[in-house]
Write a structure and sequence with these properties.
This protein is an alpha+beta fold. It is built from seven helices and 17 strands. The structure holds FE2/S2 (inorganic) cluster (FES) and fe (ii) ion (FE2).
Length: 356
């Protein structure tokens, strides 16, 4: 597929010497969530992503396509067009574009101008999301594998949600490498808390393809929880959920991560986090949370409600801060911030790979 970047390069060469900042949102070359799969039906849909106006639609195989929204002819919105014979048809003069953005027909015209084309993005549809690659004409690493969501034995129960928030992509993703906000923000009273930045020897096999491309960053938080608090905590305490060894392992790529929480050494839950940079200071956080089943039906219901709500509430606790804080990169840092600072270096290395 032709990328937005290729098209952008051509048009800027011909336009003028105006300096155009092609990456004003300081985005990393990486995979982002464009939307939930279920949000895209048969009709084209207007979306905004990376600060750009785009259109999403499905071709004749049902495969998603994301392309520039405004027609290369006179700029009509393809989002109010129709899909005909597997192509998107512009509503204004009925030019048709295929799933690679090529104009394939113009009524009563035989020779299609070479500039009659729409730039497209590389797409993958997986885990109930439509993912889009940003930054280079083809992906520099594969979309990470989330084995809990592919588990054919159905050992997990899924809980999916998203939050609109202010902030930036790295702010959202670095949160899991920031061990010292857990007690103040998430009221997780711990006797001790320790963060270890993991090296490649600790990578899970599913992350090998990312590791090879230096697109993997991981940390482990280990804590001893004294007790849970709040209404859910009261239930947890009745059930004896106290004095627990808690650890959380986060395996990040530049714009998302897969996390695993262990209670007393056993896997309890897993989470896939993806990010959607809509425009400046406008982000959507998506989470597909997977709760490990026990052997008992009623206990499963309790686990589902307890872990599901607790997790969604805890993301909401972060969102409150993201919505009200002023980002500063010149802050005063201490040793507790090394996970965040290391992650920012990693993120920036992928911003630097964006082709301009
Ligand atoms: S503006 Fe799209 S076909 Fe004319
Ligand atoms: Fe948090």
């Amino acid at each position: 597929m032709t990328s937005i970047l290729e098209k952008g390069t051509q048009s800027n060469q011909t336009k003028s010497a105006t300096v155009v900042d092609k990456n004003p949102l300081n985005l990393a070359a990486s995979w982002y969530v464009a939307m939930l799969s279920k949000e895209l039906g048969k009709k084209p849909k207007a979306i905004q992503l990376f600060g750009q106006d785009l259109v999403a639609w499905r071709d004749k195989n049902g495969t998603p396509v994301i392309m520039e929204r405004y027609c290369s002819h006179m700029g009509a919105s393809l989002a109010i067009g129709e899909v005909k014979d597997g192509c998107i048809q512009c509503p204004f003069h009925h030019w048709r574009y295929d799933n690679e953005g090529n104009c394939v027909s113009i009524p009563d015209i035989e020779n299609i101008p070479p500039t009659a084309r729409q730039a497209t993005y590389v797409i993958e549809e997986r885990y109930g999301y439509i993912w889009v690659w940003y930054g280079t004409s083809s992906p520099l690493f594969p979309l990470p594998k989330y084995s809990a969501a592919e588990d054919e034995k159905h050992n997990y129960m899924s809980w999916r949600f998203s939050f609109n928030t202010k902030g930036t992509v790295p702010l959202l993703v670095e949160n899991l490498h920031d061990s010292h906000h857990l007690d103040p923000v998430h009221t997780l009273p711990c006797d001790s808390i320790q963060l270890t930045i993991l090296d490649e020897q600790h990578s899970s096999p599913q992350f090998e393809p990312l590791l090879k491309k230096a697109a993997w960053f991981s940390s482990l938080i280990e804590a001893r929880i004294k007790s849970y608090v709040g209404p859910l905590g009261a239930i947890a305490q009745v059930l004896g959920f106290k004095g627990i060894d808690y650890s959380h392992r986060t395996e990040s790529w530049p714009t998302g991560h897969i996390g695993t929480s262990f209670l007393n050494g056993e896997v309890a839950v897993k989470a896939l986090i993806g990010t959607t940079p809509v425009a400046e200071n406008q982000i959507i956080l998506h989470e597909l949370f997977m709760i490990k089943k026990s052997g008992f039906f009623l206990l499963n219901i309790f686990y589902y409600l307890f872990f599901g709500w607790q997790n969604q509430l805890s993301v909401w606790e972060d969102v409150k801060h993201w919505n009200t804080m002023k980002l500063r990169r010149d802050g005063a840092y201490v040793k507790h911030d090394r996970g965040v600072l290391k992650f920012r270096e990693f993120y920036q290395s992928w911003v630097n790979k964006v082709e301009v």
